[in-house]
Amino acid sequence: MAFHLNDPVTALKNVGGKREKLYEKLGVRTVGNLLRFYPRSYVDYTSPKLAAECVPGEPAVIEAKVLKKLTPAPIRKNMVLYKLLLTDGLSNVMLTIFNNEYAYYDMKVGETYLFHGKFSTMGGNYQLTLSSFIRAEDGEVMRPVYNLTEGLSNGMVVNNVKEAVANWGRLLEDILPQEVAARHSLMPFEEAVRTIHFPSGKDAYDRARYRLAFEELFLLSMSLLLLKGRDKGSTEVQIKDPDMGPFYASLPFELTGAQKRAIGEILSDMSGQVPMNRLLQGDVGSGKTMVAAAGCFAAFKGGFQSAIMAPTEILASQHEATLKKTLEPLEMKVCLLTGSLTKKQKDALRAEIAAGTYDVVVGTHALVQKDTVFQRLGFIVTDEQHRFGVRQRGELVKKGERPHHLVMSATPIPRTLALIVYGDLDISVLDELPKGRQKVETFTVHSDKRKRALGFIKKELEAGHQGYIVCPLIEDSDSELMAAVRYEKIIQTNYFPEYKVALLHGRLKSDEKDQIMNAFKEGKIHLLVSTTVVEVGVDVPNATIMMIENAERFGLSQLHQLRGRVGRGNAQSYCILVSDNEGEENRRRLQVMKETSDGFVIAKEDLKLRGAGDFFGDRQHGLPQLGIADLLEDSALFRTAQGEAKALLERDPGLEQPEQMRLRLYMDEIFGNNDSGLN
Ligand code: ADP
Ligand code: MG
């Protein structure tokens, strides 16, 4: 029989249609998939403990001799309790086995075994509830523990994997270049896979994991490099040494060092032949808009139009206002194109955009529609906030002749991660806040302290400041909307009769939203009760206090974004997180919010809590998946692997040498043959 890694799992013993379905649930269809179905953890039999050293309530491995087998005791229908008395040489331990007849009858009095289970104490006596055991002479092993699904036991998977390793293992070929493997003393792929399933000990495990993680990160780096290196063509938009003096002179403040550096990077890109593709990452309040404005000014100096796409109307109109204030004194014309204009208004505006009347066009999705045509589009900004897909960005780019493109993101993530998620972009980071900003003081309270919190808000309003109260609201649920409406009424009449309170939510018409936002900006509304529509970008420096109801319903990054709406001026600002949820995870999240205001740290915590898949959605789509490497934990290894991938591409840009054939085939597969840029 010829073996193939694509053989279905049913090629294995004891795997029929039923088990095939169970495996499918775990994403395992072929024997090759099963070989790469790495254990979730291990039972480590290599360092057993004495019962006296074990921690009650925790899993433990104890080496002990069977002194006596007690008579099985039926405790319920279909439930038999088996007990054995053990000694580890120092103390006695009562071993309890539930419903595992086989284990009980297999164990012999006088023999020594390694027992793994949950350790506890009862009236001064040691107890162990059995999970698994091995004979002492089989010792020095780590037993794999797999992710399972109902109906599929760990033992079944272990047996299937054993057979797969024995008969299919030799088909696992090394894809990593020989010399790279040699330089880092990597074990062969086949050995690594075998070892990761059945390590003989901790050292073997470490070496196997290193080998596998190295390969994953190497392949990921390689695809990112190819993605980035793809021919982007050259652009007509080359703006050499624009005179930025008037722009800097007109600003009411000194730019931060980080802003200057980012602007420098952007101007340098814009003077070149290759269209810019750059990510501007910065924490909330770091002043990304001014950096974008500098790019618009440079484009204008070069005779080009700019377009700025924002994810919501509120944000688009705010950008328009900021840019008008900054750029119109410099003789630039700024307009706003959104879906809420009438057809007639849109047509008129589009005609002017096509004629080149406007230098900067700010808008929402309406910008990418077919009938928006530019006269000379040279610079594009997308204010991403995780809301635009790669495709929409692409559509806007097509509106110009290879315009320069800046992506702004307010969810700062660690650099290594940014490199992966935005693999096709260069990165500028605003890692500095404008001077005078103070840390937003953050409290967490139970809802029974709401009254006091409202009193605190009142003090801020009395001092002439403004505030937000955020209610989590599922935007399409009528009952929740009603609750928010009622909430706002109560707040207005019972607590703040002498102030103006207003409600802002996503189902208002956009001109209504604009009216409310403008009134808030002008200070005519003192307290804004709002759903998460204030989350992105809203900038009202006089707002100094925010209270967030049901804080447990928000993700960490979202809480950080929300909190970023205050602390934008010079006055001390506050954030009150209201939550009655006592869960461990929630407590930890709120603690993080209290302790840090660093968006990078918060994003990292968010990632740990939610897992990378959830955090990024499908941004990574198409790139090699990581099975064992961890982007957060393995960042040093990632740099090493990346260095090797880079060096290899420098030596052999097309991966043409015969020994790179497997690697090349792999890359062709990832990119769909013709698109890898390797041809
Ligand atoms: P974000 O990065 O969150 O989008 P914004 O661009 O909205 O930040 O800027 C936040 C606030 O800081 C705005 O009111 C803006 O005018 C102000 N700002 C930007 N740069 C500076 C600076 N260098 N010094 C002082 N204030 C600044
Ligand atoms: Mg912003």
TrEMBL record:
It holds the Pfam family DEAD. It catalyses: Couples ATP hydrolysis with the unwinding of duplex DNA by translocating in the 3'-5' direction; ATP + H2O = ADP + phosphate + H(+). Residues 449-608 form the Helicase C-terminal domain. Residues 269-430 form the Helicase ATP-binding domain. PROSITE patterns: HELICASE_ATP_BIND_1 (PS51192), HELICASE_CTER (PS51194). The keyword rRNA-binding does not apply. One of its GO terms (biological process) is DNA repair. InterPro entries: ATP-dep_DNA_helicase_RecG (IPR004609), DEAD/DEAH_box_helicase_dom (IPR011545), Helicase_ATP-bd (IPR014001), Helicase_C-like (IPR001650), NA-bd_OB-fold (IPR012340), P-loop_NTPase (IPR027417), RecG/Mfd (IPR047112), RecG_dom3_C (IPR045562). Its EC number is 5.6.2.4. Keywords: ATP-binding, DNA damage, DNA recombination, DNA repair, DNA-binding, Helicase, Hydrolase, Isomerase, Nucleotide-binding. GO terms for molecular function: 3'-5' DNA helicase activity; ATP binding; DNA binding; hydrolase activity. Belongs to the helicase family. RecG subfamily. Plays a critical role in recombination and DNA repair. Helps process Holliday junction intermediates to mature products by catalyzing branch migration. Has replication fork regression activity, unwinds stalled or blocked replication forks to make a HJ that can be resolved. Has a DNA unwinding activity characteristic of a DNA helicase with 3'-5' polarity. This is ATP-dependent DNA helicase RecG. The gene is recG.
